[in-house]
Structures are given as C-alpha cells and as structure tokens.
Amino acid sequence: MPTLSARRTFGALGLVAALALVGCGQKDDAPATKGGPISLRRLTEPEYRQIIADVFGTTIKVPGRFEPDVRDNGLIAVGTSRESVAGTGFEEYDLTARGIAAQVVDDAHRATLIPCTPAKPTDRDDKCATQFIASTGRLLFRRPLTSDELQTNVKNAGDAAVKLNSFYGGLELSVAAMLVSPQFLFRQEVSEPDPDNPGQRRLDPYSTASRLSFFLWDSTPDTELLDAAANGELNTDKGIARQVDRMVKSPRLASGVRAYFSDMLGFDGFASLAKDPQIYPKFSSQVAADAKEQTLRTLTDLLVTNDGDYRDIFTTRKTFLTRLLGSVYQVPVTASTEWEPHEYAEGDPRAGILMEISFVALHSHPGRSSPTIRGKALREVFLCQKVPDPPGNVNFALVQDTKNPAFHTARARLEAHRTQATCQGCHKIMDPAGLAMENFDSSGGFRSTENGSPIDTSGDIDGVKFEDALGFTKAVHDNPSVPSCLVTRMYSFGTGRPATKDEADWLSYQVKQFAASGYKVPELMSRIASSKAFYRVSTPGTEANNASLSMAGTTTQTEALK
Amino acid sequence: MTRFGSCLRPLALTAGLAAAAFSAGHASASETRGYVVSWFGVSTYYGGDSDCPDGLNPMSTEFYKRELLRLGYSEADAVRLLKDFPGNPGKPDGEYIKIMSTRGDKKTNVYAHPESAADPGLKEVKGKFAYGFNLDGKTDSPISFTDPDTGEKGIKNQYYRSLGCIRSFRAPPPAHPTLAQAQWDVLRDEMPAWLIEVSGITDPMNSDNVTVTISRAVDHVSRDSDNNIRADMSFKVDPDPRSHNVLHGHIKDGVLTTDPADIRIVADPFLIPEFHWKEARLKLKMGADGSLKGLVGGYHDWYALYWSYAESGWVEEHSASVDMPALYYSLKRNADAYPDPKTGENTAISTAYEIEAVPAFVIHTDDKNDKKVSDAGSAKPAVRLAANAGQ
Asked: What is the value of pTM for the model shown?
C-alpha cells in the first residue's frame, strides 16, 4: 500500500505528464470541436461570497439574501446562463453591496484594503481614489476597467467625498456601485477570432481567465491570472497550460472541486431541507449543514488530497464527522467541536457518499424515506440519465401510507404501486437503486426493519445484481455511466452550457483519458481546462452545432459516451 | 460482535473489558453502555389531596402579607407594600423585599440566618406514599413511606415530606413540578453533562454483577429538534475526582439497582454547587428504547439543600413561594440521619431524585492535553466506548 505522500507524488507526476501532453507543444489528440455559444452567467451566491472573501478578505461579512438560482441540465452553473436580476433581487444586491462597501472603508479595514492615504480624509483625493478603484475594479470586473469606467468611478467617488466631507465615504459609494454593476454580477464572456484557426472564434484572454478561475478555483481570477491575460500568455496553449498547472497545484483547487460537487449533488437543496422533528428529532439545520460539509470533505480528501479514483466515492469507508453527525451515525466522536476523520468499521452498512446523510436525507420526504426519489436522484445525478416526471393522474395514496398493515415496507408498497401500468416503466429504473438505500431513514439514521418487518436491500441495477447496500455501492462504482457522466457534467459546469452534439466525440475521448488516468479528478479538470474545446466559441450561423447533446445528459448521451 | 448484528443500535464493547474477558477465558463477553442524564429533579410524589391533608402552603404574597402584619404593619400598609409585587429591591417599590429580608429581628438577613426569625410553620406531607429508598432497612419506622408503584414499605424520603406541600413542588404526572422543571431547564444548558456508564452487562435484563460509573463530562448536552436531550452524542469525562463514582450493582428484570455507596458529583451553583449523598443508591429501569429512568437517592446534608434555595434570597422565595425560614425549620426538624456527635441533631435528610438518561458515547481522555488514555489490556489507545443499548 503506497503511503499518502507516495500517492501524492505519483499523482503529481501523472498530472505533470498529462499537462506535458496537453499543453507544452505536443499535439492534442482530442477530436476537434466547433465550440458552443458564449455565456452570460449571473454569479451564484457561493461565487459572490468567495469573490468578496478573495478580494477584501474573510473578515468582511456579506449581509443580505440572494435570489435563488435556477438548475438547468442538472447544474446551477448552466442555469445561471438563463438568469437575470429582478427588481427585488436588485434591491437585495444593493443592500448587500452597501453593507460590504461600508466594511471595506471602515477603520478596521481601510489601512489594509486601501493602498494609499488621502491628503485630507475630509476631501476628495482623485489620485488615491484612482489607485484603489483601478486595482479593486480589476479584480471585481475580472478585467481592467475601461478608461470611461475608471474616470466615472473616480469622479463619483470624489464628488461624493466633497458632499460627505469624507474621502472614505466617497470610496464607499464607489465600491457599492461596482458591486451592483452588471460587470460584476454577471460573468460576461467575450469572443474573438482565433488566429490559429481562421474562421473560428475563441474566448478573449480575460474571458479565458475567468472561465479558468471559476472552473478551478470557484472565484475571480487572481492578479497573476489577470496579468497572464494582459500580457498575452492566455492566447497560447502553452500559456494556458502553465496557468492550469499553477492553479491545479494550488490548494485552492479544493474550492473548485467543492463548488463542482456542491452543484452536481444539488446541495442548494439543503437551504430548504427540513424533517419532521417528532419523527426525526436528531435532524436539525446544523446536522444538515454538517452533513453537506461531511460529503464535501469526503470528496476533497479522496479526490484532491489523496488523488483517488473518482468511482471510489461510492465505496470509500473514510469520511469526516462532527459530534452532531456522530449522534445520527451512532458512532463516538472524540473532538468536541472540530471535524474528526472517521472510517466506517468492517461490517458497517455505510460506505461511500450515497449512504451519507447528505444523499439519503436530501432525497427523502420530510416524514419518510423515498426509494423512488433516491433512485431518481442516483440516475440523474451520477448517471446523467433523465427520468421523466410522473403523470399527473397517479394515485400516490398507497406509497404514502407508511402505516398500512398490509404493506409494512417501502418495497411492499412500491411493488403494489407498480401494478399500475403507467408507473411500471419509470419505477423499474428508479426503485431498485432506491430500495438498496432503505436501511437509512429520511434523516440518515440506520434501521434494519420498517414497521417490524426486515428491510430487504437486494436488487439489481442495469443488470448487475447485488445482495445489500454495500453490494449496491460496488455496482454503482463499476457502472460505466458513472465516469462518462462526470466528464460531461464537469465540462458543462466549466462552460456554463450543455455540451453540443458536435462535442460528443471530444467528450468520448475525454472519458477514455479519464479512465486511462485512473479516474483522477484533478487530472480530468486539468485536461478540460487545458483543452482548446474549453475555450472554443461557435461562430454565428452554426446554430445546428449548438444543439444540446441532451437534457442533463440523457440515457442516449451517456450511452454514446461509454 | 458486529455493530449491526441483531441490534438496531450500535453495541460497542469496552475495549479494555473485552480484552480482559478474552484473556481470562470467559465464554461470554460483557458490554458497557453509556448514557447522558436527560432529566434530573427532586422526587415529589403527587397523590392528590391526600398528600397534604392540612392543605398546601401559602403563596409568597400570602405569607409576605402575614409577615408584614406580624411585624406590625397595618392591613392598608401591607396592601400598599405588596402592590407592586414582585417588585425590585433597587427601587422604592421593592420596599417590602427589604422588610422581608430582615423579617426576623429587622436587621439580620433572614435567608443567611433563618433562626433570626421564629418558625412560621411549614405544612408538610402526611400522606402514605412516596418514591425513594429504604435507606435504613427499617419498615416500621413512623417516618416511612410506601412506594406507590411497587408497594415497597420503609421508603425514607423526609426531603419530600418538607417540600411536598409547597405548590411549586407539586404537579400531576407526567408534568414535572414547576421549580424542578425550571431548574433543570437552566442546568441542562449551563452545566456540563452528567454521565452514567454501566459495564459488565451480560444480559440487559438480568446481570448479577455490574459496575456503574457516575461522572461529569467536560461537554454540555445539546438538544434535538424536539427540544429533548440529544441521544447518541459523545462526551468526554471530566477527570475531576469530585465527580467520579464507581458503584456496584445488578440488573434484575430490566431494573438496575446499586448497592449503597457515597455519590459525589459537581452540579451548578444555580441549583447546588455539588451533591454529596451518603448511603446512596440507584434504581433505574433500562428501557427498550435504550434509555434509563428511575431514582437516585440517599442521605444528604440538609443545610446544603436549604442553602440551595436560600442563596438566592428573596428571588426564589417570592417566585417559587418557598418560605425560607419555614423550610429551614422543616428540614432541620425532618432530618433523619447522621446525628452531630455534639448536639445530637441529625445533619442529613433522606432524599430521592428522579433521573432519566439517554444513550451516549462516554469517552475517557487525559484532562491536560486531551490525549486519549489507554485502557488496561487494550491494544488500542484510549477510548472507552460506552455504547448505547440495542433496541
């Protein structure tokens, strides 16, 4: 068994090798693509918060609420391309911006965040204001401010300073104005002709920097990346590869991995997740928050820290716990307030993230589990298979009656429910997977019986039989749709749009590369970020190429990519 | 043993005990179960009117008025002084509080020096029934009660005799008396948790030889979404020897009973700085849901119990209607054990407290550096896992 340091070393070597192939002058063997449309994406709440933390520091509090995001094709990252800002939403953005701006210039922060001192704190100082607004605006707008933008902001800050008798009051208004600007709130991608491929277009350097940074770091480009955009480095494959190499080696890659899986796993659903406290008293909002964090820690530890096999997220016994989670999992946790590594014991029915609270609780009803919802989630989230919504006239009375004396278990109720012809088809693909997780109630607690009857977790998924929940996790681990789904979805996450039909061959190639790498996620992210396809923009008049490969990666799509 | 064998809940063996058992060649292993106390309050049996045939004690407004009249104030003055009850001692309308605080000799704090006042008399329990223990082994004592559930005779609970006719100590079950509930509501959040471990369990229904450890945690309890004490939480044991008690006992028909022994445990000044029972014992039913429910009782220094109320002065007196001098004299009168060698007056009073506990993981660690301490005979470090019961 290689040591952790050895795994990291080998992982790093593999990554370097991949980068060498992709970005350092050697030919990229990936099939060519014609690209897709550029996107205009509204910042998500996590992105907004991360940017503020990166630009102004973590001591700046982000007050207020945000408009809910829209999920499209299985990802909020795609849905944000279809979002605007409503009037009420703008009010919230404005309040939030004012709250942040006030902190940026207050006594506790001004010395750190403002790079100069005004000649008189009670008057305008355009030179100092220019220095601050130019540097801060570059980070917020993810590009240098135009001359007009800079002059306008400096003038407004100066005029306000005179009226308020406060230099910092003027700057405060200027910061607030930048934070409600569409240039900040929306990631506006810009394309330009690709000189290496006449007739084709690519993202311009600053859009390239943003796409890279949000994909790998879940935040705005740092100064070095913006400098690379400014000096032309991002116009070359080699330059992009160098930046990708830097960013993938950075600890901040974990933020990008967390952001991707938070989106893919639908963790925005935790904001409204609730359980009946009388049925599941152990479940609470803090348990929900910890459960979400548990899975993200499990994933980053396996995939980033240990550069592990992506498929092992379904079978790993290693995780992290807080005491609150320990009470639900019924295991001791020594650490009082910190997170503690935990390894499920031999014989423990839990393994992998499907058996963690974050999955089984998120995909359940408030007062009961739901094999159907869980099975549907598995298909859609991990296999990229779209399960149709139920017909409008379905009678759910039987499956909802958990106290029916004739049907003690969810399996028995669903078997009776499936006798309705209209229900059979979908339930056949959803229920076996969901029933395999029936040992876990709606709150994530373990149970071996329901209404006194033993719970049977055996079944089959896509022709692979299993005897219990652990067998199920192994079957999912080996399901060929699992890696292809990840590749497709991660590409969509980075580009903010569904993959196009034109990109199917490229994606198939990436799936093969992903397998050849040992299903290493950082390497996959590196390959995507280093590829030409990632920055290719379709040219006007090629709408046919822009047709989505599928909705959320349908069965057809993932089959095609196997 | 697997975690999820026949039991629904995790059932962990104490590592050290398991190793010892195996090395000794025992055929069957024993288990240790851990609990955190989820309810604690003085046991005051509620049997209706028959408990207090002389009636209940007056409310504080009533005995304050009585005292004002006794001190020579007119009816009109008494009404005027009590108009703004409960008042505030820092303001003029709290004048009655100052008067009540020195109602003995008009200069001495009556709560700190209750004998500065004459005994106003406390109506006491005269009913037959009470929960508790036969602490002295006698069944024919005139102070004996009978257990209302089991019919056991010889129950000694003189503390209940003193408290049982005060309104704030009375409530028909399943409600808890107001004062006990209010105290616990504060204590459970303010005070580090109390822990119980039961080791040597070979059969949850019948085990002849079990060890019960009562200790205090360094951690506080947390509540679940239904506002009850959260079960299956982990707690580190406070190594303070003042809160470490090892008792011997047995389980019969699912009821855990311990042999008489002293129990000392640090509490909280809000209730009492620490409990120190003599000849104490536990009687706890081991519930099918993994919980414990029953009594802890023994002889306790009666003045410490008095001071647990009187230390707050007029606050508890007026809010809980506990006439402090009356309580003082009643406890002194009803004290039934450990006579002072010089005066011959009893220094301790028989008591019983309700106690309930839910499953918890009890972790023993080093108090200084949080390093786990190895159990003897265990290859693994540290953690002695007292896991909860199977369902």
From this structure: 0.85
